[in-house]
Amino acid sequence: MFFGRKEELSKLEKLRQGGGFQLPVIYGRRRVGKTALIRRFIQDKEAIFFTAIESSEQQNLENLSRAILATSGGDTSPVFRHFQDAFEHVFRLSLEKPLVLAIDEYPYLAKACPAVSSILQKLIDEYKEQSQLFLILCGSSMSFMEEQVLGYQSPLYGRRTAQLKILPFDFFEAREYFRHFSAQDMAAVYGIVGGTPQYLLQMDDRLSLGENLKARLLDPACYLFEEPGNLLKQEIREASSYNAVISAIAAGASRLSEIADKTGLESSGCSAHLNKLMALGLVRKEAPFGQHSTRKTIYAVADPLFRFWYRFIPKYVSLLQNGMIDAVCARIMAQLPQYMGPVFEDICKQWLWRQNRRGALPFLFTSLGRWWGSDPRTKSEAEIDIVGTGEEDQTLFCECKWTQEPIGSGTLSTLVARSELIQSSKRHYILFARSGFTEGCRNTAEQMGTVRLVDFASMLEMGC
């Protein structure tokens, strides 16, 4: 089932309407919906869709030949002797009529035939002035696409006319797929599987959250139970050491030295592993907002499914493999409110960016992040969930609470006190709450005049 991607489809359609030769490059991690996006785009167009495979040059040439000839209604037996002949045939067809050629998993093709980028470069330069070809190059290997297709050293450098990096859905996009989950259960679903379409499709909103956990994640026979390990093996040859790095971060190691100690890797090797995991979108690094010191850099598991899996599955794997799914589910459900704290912060950031695009905030912020550091007044560590800055020295300070109780005025007072640790001449505050606010908090916010109170129900209404 296809849903979402309205903006991406619109960009592709506008590019096509521009006429002439076009070369959009589409890339993003596996399972994110690139192929579904391309198929939706070409469904009403004359198009050749070819998926490269991890096989020989000859096998890929035969498959491409079949795809080309099947589209033109001819014999589908292989006839092209070389990729040069096959692609030139397509370019010649595009001289007479608009035509789409979509090459999915392009890195596999380039691996099977290293000259393919140079072949395409030559043909693009020869035919682009008269061609009506809409050539899509798509790949899941983000490092390859960025370096070997988009990069300066690539033969195709300067030939692309657009590039689309396809990301997982945010919470507000993901919730459009479901109609029967409660708002809070939908937030939990997002916190567990994230916005990757293939993972969302595994969830069933006719079942309760607990039933989904048991049937779709905790059962050792289900798809998502094996997905993190399978994805690592697909992307990385020696996945065991990368698995150890993610496990160390999920267990609480956040600094490079801590991760290296837990994994037994040298710092340089550990750093290389982290860079690879960040390129795959599985890990992210952070520094306190407004600071760039590498000494304060920390790492966190970025992908929600990996974050959930490594948080809970390894410690319960023996119980799960012995059929104790109900018992494990009960333990996880009890820990979900605490687990959801950082998830809610991410949802609040997404909401803020949406409101920022609409001009619905006190000022237009240009950067957003989390701040932490020492408070000399209390001689303790302090943290602010979200800080945003814009022009004219304006700063936004936010606190996010995923609790069952309404937020009181004490939370607001603490936020105001901590905001004084960051220099700013114009301060604005937002409190985000799962369960609303006390009357005292509302009164204090009204008196201050620079405070906005946003509960979860309001976020859903305004975030659409």
Describe the protein.
The chain is an alpha/beta fold and 464 residues long. It has 3 domains: 6-165, Rossmann fold (3-Layer(aba) Sandwich), CATH 3.40.50; 172-339, Arc Repressor Mutant, subunit A (Orthogonal Bundle); 342-463, Trna Endonuclease, Chain: A, domain 1. 50% of the residues lie in helices and 17% in strands. The protein is built from 20 helices and 12 strands. It has a 5-stranded parallel sheet with strand order 2-3-4-1-5, with helices on both faces. Strands 8-9-10-11-12 form a 5-stranded mixed sheet, with helices on both faces. A hairpin with a 3-residue loop joins strand 9 and strand 10. Helix 11 crosses helix 17 and helix 13 (239-250) crosses helix 14. It is globular, with a radius of gyration of 25 Å. The two termini are 21 Å apart. The mean pLDDT is 93.
Quick overview of this protein structure:
The chain is of the alpha/beta class and 464 residues long. 50% of the residues lie in helices and 17% in strands. The longest helix has 34 residues, at 325-358.
Name the CATH superfamily assignment of the largest domain.
Answer: Winged helix-like DNA-binding domain superfamily/Winged helix DNA-binding domain
The main sheet comes to: 5 strands, parallel
Helix content: 40-55%
- Annotation field: number of helices: 20
Radius of gyration: 25 Å
The rounded distance between the terminal residues' Cα atoms is 21 Å
* Average pLDDT number: 93
Query: Which strand order does the major sheet show?
Result: 2-3-4-1-5
Tell me the count of domains. 3
SSE topology:
Blueprint: H1 6-17, E1 24-27, H2 34-42, E2 47-51, H3 57-71, H4 83-96, E3 99-104, H5 106-112, H6 116-127, E4 133-139, H7 142-149, E5 162-165, H8 171-174, H9 183-193, H10 197-200, H11 209-218, H12 223-235, H13 239-250, H14 256-263, H15 267-279, E6 283-286, E7 298-301, H16 304-321, H17 325-358, E8 365-375, E9 380-390, E10 394-401, H18 409-419, E11 426-433, H19 439-448, E12 451-455, H20 456-463
Helix pairs in contact: 4-6, 9-16, 9-17, 11-17, 13-14, 16-17, 18-19
